[in-house]
Amino acid sequence: MPAHEAVNIEIAIRWSGDAYAGDVQLDQPGSQTDAVLATDVRIDLNIESLLAHTLDAAAYGRDLTAQLFAEGSMLTAAWRTARGLADGAALPLRLRLRLAPAAGVLHAVRWETLCDPLTDMPLALDARLRLVRYLDSPNTRPITFGPKPTLRALLVVAAPHDLARYRMADIDVSGEVRRVRESLGAIALTVVGDVDGARSRRATLDAIQDALRAGVKPVTKIHVLA
């Protein structure tokens, strides 16, 4: 999505003396300059507290959100401003998270679990929000990406023939396969399900394993529709 089709809020976090500090900039459609919403905001990150929630992503996200967007802080106010602008313009909100390269502990934090401090909704579940992590490097040599691998996908459609017995509607296997093919475009697709041309007509674990062993990897995504 081009930058002009979204409201962009960038939160840059770095080590500053005895604590982490954050700076916030805002970029919105129609503006030729960025707005500085906050600078040098103290962020008290408690890594040990986060580690205590390692096995509970929801609790981890709530704790991380409370630490980053402390009540009454400038970061929370900046988020409220950016969210309001995006909602008012009916545009997505893109959160650019820029972490200092030397702050190694920051890169181990599970930022993808962050929640909206205004609604408590996980950002990863918000269809109108984009979370982007920026990686800076002090190395002046040009950085280039390697060649893209050939992508292939495996689609598994489970469609039991006795669904009526449980008062459930039949699954449109052909329709599901057609829609996935249209979405993937030129990506090669292997199908396991009751449809013409499928590698196996039964969506069993053995059939899935057989398809993977036959060279479907790297798998773009596995769809299980039931």
- What's the order of the H and E elements? EEEHHHEHEEHEHE
Q: Averaging pLDDT over every residue, what do you get?
A: 86
Count of β-strands: 8
Strands in their spatial order, largest beta sheet: 3-2-1-4-5
Report on the biggest sheet.
5 strands, mixed
Please tell me how large the radius of gyration is.
23 Å
User: How much of the polypeptide forms β-strand, as a percent range?
Assistant: 25-35%
Estimate percent helicity: 25-40%
How many domains, in number, for the residues? 2
Distance linking N and C termini: 32 Å
* Total of helices: 6
Provide a descriptive summary of the structure in words:
With 226 residues, the protein is of the alpha/beta class. The protein contains six helices and eight strands, in the order E-E-E-H-H-H-E-H-E-E-H-E-H-E. The longest helix is centred in the middle third of the chain and has 15 residues. The relative contact order is 0.12.
Q: Key features?
A:
6 helices, 27% helix, 2 domains, single chain, 226 residues, alpha/beta, 5-stranded mixed beta sheet, 3-stranded parallel beta sheet
Brief digest:
The protein has helices at 47-51, 57-68, 74-88, 104-107, 173-184, 205-216, and strands at 7-16, 19-27, 35-43, 93-99, 129-135, 152-157, 188-192, 219-225. It is of the alpha/beta class and 226 residues long.
